[in-house]
Amino acid sequence: MKDLVFIINPAAGNGRGAGTWRKVKKILDRDGVQYRSFQTEYQGHAEILARQIASLGNHRLQSITGIGGDGTIHEIINGLSEYEHIHVGYIPAGSGNDIARGFKTSKKPAKALKNILKQHNKGKCRVFDGGRLSLDHFGNHRLFLNSAGIGLDAAVTAAASQLPFKNMLNKANLGYLSYAAALLHTLQSFQPCNMEAVIDGNSFQFEKVWLIAVANQPYYGGGMKIAPQAVPTDGLLHITVVKEIPKWKLLLLFVTVFTGKHTLLKEVEILTCKEIFLRSEVPLPVQADGEIAGETPVIVSVLASRMNLLT
Ligand SMILES: Nc1ncnc2c1ncn2[C@@H]1O[C@H](COP(=O)(O)OP(=O)(O)OP(=O)(O)O)[C@@H](O)[C@H]1O
Questions:
Q1: Which residues are catalytic?
Q2: Cβ(11) to ligand 1 under 6 A?
Q3: For residues 32 and 235, what is the distance between their CA atoms, to the nearest angstrom?
Q4: Which Gene3D superfamilies does the entry link to (predicted)?
Q5: At residue 1, does pLDDT exceed 70?
Q6: How far is the CA of 7 from the centre of ligand 1 (A)?
């Protein structure tokens, strides 16, 4: 039998990670399944653990399963960026859980575990696309499963992570309110700017851009359907450009985006690509899978059929 490894973020979903692991561990112990488990202790720890486990692991290491939110899985896939043969399992226990939405992972721990064990025991996995965000000339990059976002959404992500009452709202299952508060706060200072893009070799100019999302699957920000047509198996990234839009209409966009109807607004342009280069007049923040990654200029490219997931 190949090694089964779990990395658990107990703090994900404001403590849901710890509770989900208790449920999963109970099933594993009851059924006499052999496994190893590691708990994260700080931000970035899942990435370090995944890399260390993979580098020390021998041919017996077949999969690493993350228990946590999108941030935890994002760290694990980045820790395994040089170990593509290792399959990644996911048991959702976060606040947003957009990976679960987009990749149709069961949110029930027992069901998600059953699916993982079924594939793990057969040595199989499901193959999906991912994305790569290149940040500079030095090879610094981040892999992502959901999307990369440039501009307002990344600025809101940064602001939301610093809100003093974020944990309280998350605990009360009102995480979307911290996003709304961060949005209102960020809107006061955020300035749209002109951007230059090269999309699969073709040049584009976008005026007064608020945000550009480059998505592998439809959801981000905890259920916002930013790219309704995105499919993580089509070999493409789906670009959503929001530009030249008045602030009041931007608020309307943030309401309609939950149903995907924002694409009907004339200020929203949808494109697809395999690779996009983006440069802005002033450096804009960039996020990947909801984690702040850096600033423009960036190149975002699809990693077609390169993500081996147990889901
Ligand atoms: N032991 C720990 N204590 C506190 N924070 C931790 C710990 N381990 C990891 N972290 C950090 O917790 C943060 C939240 O994790 P994660 O993104 O998985 O959950 P979430 O934010 O609740 O869910 P989602 O991303 O789906 O909204 C991450 O930034 C992660 O690095």
A1: 291
A2: yes
A3: 39
A4: 2.60.200.40, Probable inorganic polyphosphate/atp-NAD kinase, domain 1
A5: no
A6: 12
